[in-house]
Amino acid sequence: MNRMDAVMEEMGLHPLWRLKPGKANEFPDEPAAMGWEEMKSAIESCTACPLHKGRNRTVVGVGSEKADWLFIGEAPGAEEDLKGEPFVGQAGKLLDNMLASIGLSRENNVYIANTVKCRPPANRNPEPSEMAACHPFLSRQIELVGPKLIVLLGRIAAQSVLDSDASISSLRGKVHACGNIPAIVTYHPAYLLRNPMDKSKAWEDLCFARKVMTGL
Ligand code: URA
After folding, report:
1. What's the pTM?
2. Contact residues for 81 (Cβ-Cβ < 8 A; gap 6+)
3. pLDDT at position 20 over 80
4. What fold characterizes domain 3-214?
């Protein structure tokens, strides 16, 4: 049993909630069977982990709900928590510039989500148990968007979706799999704000992603 399945089992969550396309309708009352509207209201009223206690708004995602490109970040910060939209702060401005550099925008053919839908206190990383509690929603979101390619922004997103403890540097430059959807890994924009020297590597990753997408 892998790490995320183990955490989910500990929490009483069925492992079929992991990212396994084709299993979507086995739990009709659970996120795996929900449509967009049902899932959004389930997220708004979710109390599955302690993060719900500190939230102002849940942050489901933004963009085209049938986008070819799915970008997954970590967790909402203070501004996202107030607005209910992912990546609206400084990191969001950089993400928008990164998208523009490969001809994309959050308004056009891109969907942006996070591994958890509520803000962790003091902008700490989400705990594995919080990521596991939110995982059924992320999993269903991926199925509903049905992207051609997933771009994982940073270590937390890579860990959550690929169930890997590997470093970003070892995950970059490869095509991973999220179910049957190809996924690539790059740096989180907030990391790039703190480490601008690595922006050139992120640019390489985006060019790689565009090349992978062109070949699909
Ligand atoms: N960082 C993230 O990972 N997600 C957001 O929505 C905002 C900042």
Report:
1. 0.88
2. 55, 56, 57, 59, 118, 119
3. no
4. Uracil-DNA Glycosylase, subunit E (3.40.470)
